[in-house]
Automatic annotation (TrEMBL), chain A:
SUPFAM superfamilies: MetI-like. It is a multi-pass membrane protein. The lineage of its organism: Bacteria, Pseudomonadati, Pseudomonadota, Gammaproteobacteria, Oceanospirillales. This is Glutamine ABC transporter permease GlnP. CDD domains: TM_PBP2. Its main location: membrane.
UniProtKB/TrEMBL annotation, chain B:
It is found in: Cell inner membrane. InterPro entries: AAA+_ATPase, ABC_ATPase_HisP-typ, ABC_transporter-like_ATP-bd, ABC_transporter-like_CS, MetN_ABC_transporter-like, P-loop_NTPase. This is Glutamine ABC transporter ATP-binding protein GlnQ. It comes from Vreelandella alkaliphila. Keywords: Amino-acid transport, ATP-binding, Nucleotide-binding, Transport. The keyword Metal-binding does not apply. Residues 5-239 form the ABC transporter domain. SMART domains: AAA (SM00382). Belongs to the ABC transporter superfamily. One of its GO terms (molecular function) is ABC-type amino acid transporter activity. Gene3D superfamilies: P-loop containing nucleotide triphosphate hydrolases.
Length: 218, 242
């Protein structure tokens, strides 16, 4: 076995480029996913029968199917069904939005419902309209409880981007695969790829811990 | 004396469960009505129907002439007429005492921040907590939290105050500080409806005692007359146990 860690240096620019694409998909996808999740989650918590049911169906479909199948469906099945062809990058971002959206929706619903009903009643009892109760009383409290599970979801979504190798998006895992195919340096390259992921997820964890510390959970 | 709260043949059902059955009741301005009764008799529900936290199933219920069935806008007006104090205090935990009290004035009465803060400070002083205005709920004792909650309810300038077992979650010593604030309110001619088990309070402060049983008003009388001399066995039995 000859292992030569120094060869990694030659591939650093490529790996950095792959990591940048991974980050881009993650960040854009999560901005969309968290927004979508917030809307769906509030529909689950406050919506009437119809909104609640629609949101429930969406969440169940997404949670009940593997993300790889969702990506394949978006990329290969959608063009057949409705004649919409989207490029791999857009597909990747869309997949994160739709997938993270479902999980975030459950996180938001859980956080909102965990806030004592008494506080909502106290707000309504002083004559606040319902939306003000949500915005000023339940919202800020639920937000604090949202942070830990939301952080978890961010890390999961970041790692999920590695699945986009199946539709040929040049993110970090695919970059590793390409380098590997040329030189067969499996140990060095996959170690380097793993370290890149660890640095990104580690930074996210650290960021979360700082936010959690600065915000008292009430 | 004119009635400020009028129950007209009010029923409230939770599914098959009849919690209130055809209740007729007028409460006049300045009265301190004490509601007692075994658990499940409907006393808390009766109170919560007044400010629409529970919607009545049939009949009508007027607060200062406004019907609780008048829709959301009217309901919000009613809630500004009727302040409520809860058994579990329910202070907003992310706000300090002053912010809790000022919140309603700013967001319901549309008062500016400065004016709301000044008036909130005055209310905190009134309940004996002028020096605790910057404390958060978790830094206050139960009795102090409940007094802040009373100040918060008073801040929206209600004409009626509704108390839902305000001292049931408190130690005997802490009960007294809350009861003395309530006594002070009664002396100021505030109309009050109080669900409680504090019979000494009922006797000293109450102007009217209502004993509820199975969703109906079983006894409606002067507290001093009936507490030592219950008119029926069921009430006698109940009073022996509180």
């Amino acid at each position: 076995m000859n292992i030569d860690w120094s060869i990694i240096i030659n591939f650093l620019p490529q790996l950095f480029h792959g990591a940048k694409i991974t980050l881009y998909i993650t960040v854009t996808g999560l901005i969309g996913g968290i927004t979508l999740g917030a809307v769906i989650g509030l529909m689950r918590a406050y919506g009437g029968y119809i909104l609640n049911t629609l949101a429930f169906i969406y969440v169940e479909i997404i949670r009940g199917t593997p993300i790889v199948v969702q990506v394949m469906f978006l990329y290969f099945a959608l063009p057949v069904l409705v004649d919409i062809r989207i490029d791999p990058m857009t597909t990747a971002i869309l997949a994160i939005v739709i997938n993270a959206g479902a999980y975030v929706a459950e996180i938001v619903r859980g956080a909102v419902l965990s806030i004592s009903k008494g506080l909502t009643e106290a707000g309504r009892a002083i004559g606040l309209p319902r939306w003000k109760v949500v915005v000023y009383i339940v919202g800020p409290l639920a937000f604090r409880r949202l942070i830990p599970p939301l952080g978890n979801q961010c890390i999961v979504s970041l790692k999920d981007t590695s699945l986009f190798i199946v539709i040929g998006v040049g993110e970090l895992t695919r970059t590793g695969q390409e380098i590997m195919a040329a030189n067969f340096r499996a140990v060095e390259i996959w170690t380097a790829v793993a370290v890149f992921y660890l640095i990104m997820t580690g930074t996210l964890s650290l960021l979360l811990r700082i936010i959690e510390k600065r915000m008292r959970i009430l | 004396m004119s009635a400020i709260i009028e129950f007209k043949n009010v029923s409230k059902h939770f599914g098959p469960l009849k919690v209130l059955e055809e209740v007729d009741l007028d409460i006049n301005r300045g009265e301190v009505v004490v509601l007692i009764g075994p658990s499940g008799s409907g006393k808390s529900t009766l109170l919560r129907c007044i400010n629409g936290l529970e919607m009545i199933t049939s009949g009508d219920l007027l607060v200062d002439g406004l019907s609780v069935k008048g829709g959301n806008k009217i309901l919000r007006e009613i809630r500004q007429e009727a302040g409520m104090v809860f058994q579990q205090f329910n202070l907003f935990p992310q706000m300090n005492a002053l912010e809790n009290v000022a919140f309603g004035q700013r967001h319901v009465r549309g008062m500016g921040r400065k004016a709301a803060d000044i008036s909130a400070q005055e209310l905190l002083e009134k309940v004996g907590l002028g020096d605790k205005s910057r404390h958060y709920p978790h830094e206050l004792s139960g009795g102090q939290q409940q007094r802040v909650a009373i100040a918060r309810a008073l801040a929206i300038k209600p004409k009626v105050m509704l108390f839902d077992e305000p001292t049931s979650a408190l130690d005997p010593e802490l009960k007294q500080e809350v009861l003395s604030v309530m006594r002070k309110l009664a002396e100021e001619q505030m109309t009050m409806v109080v669900v409680t088990h504090e019979m000494s309070f009922a006797k000293q402060v109450g102007t009217r005692l209502i004993f509820m049983e199975h969703g109906k008003i079983a006894v409606d009388a002067n507290p001093a007359d009936v507490i030592d001399n219950p008119p029926n066995d069921r009430m006698k039995d109940f009073l022996r146990h509180v």
